[in-house]
Write the structure tokens for this entry.
Amino acid sequence: MSDSPDSFQYPRSAYDELDGIIYLPRMLDKMRLMHAGTLHPDLHANLGLAMDLWTCQFLGVDYHELKTQVLAGASDEDALVWARKHGVTRADFELTWFTSHIKKFGFKDQMSGRLQERLRESGFEDRSDIQTFMDYIEVDEGRDLPN
């Protein structure tokens, strides 16, 4: 693999869901891309942290144990089945809370200032449509914001 910027990839959208669990497909993509050596370097520092960590905490599984399953060839669906078998069962209201937290992270909360810093660093300070870290991820990686 070449180390040229064109050889790196971003994972799928942070807004993608698997059986109603937002962000999970992105995290699984990140695991696979990192293993293949093609994950964009901007994402290396936070592997297993922040939204990755929260997703694993929601599922009640260890990030590295889930990654072992994924790198052994588990599909997204298989990884979720494994996580549900080895993790915790969540009530519907907990999924609603988790989804809300992930989608709104950075909007008028303790991380709003950091989001504004990231917007300035990326040249998006004039984009009033970027209100959360999920929005920022989409735009920063070249995708349109969902409607």
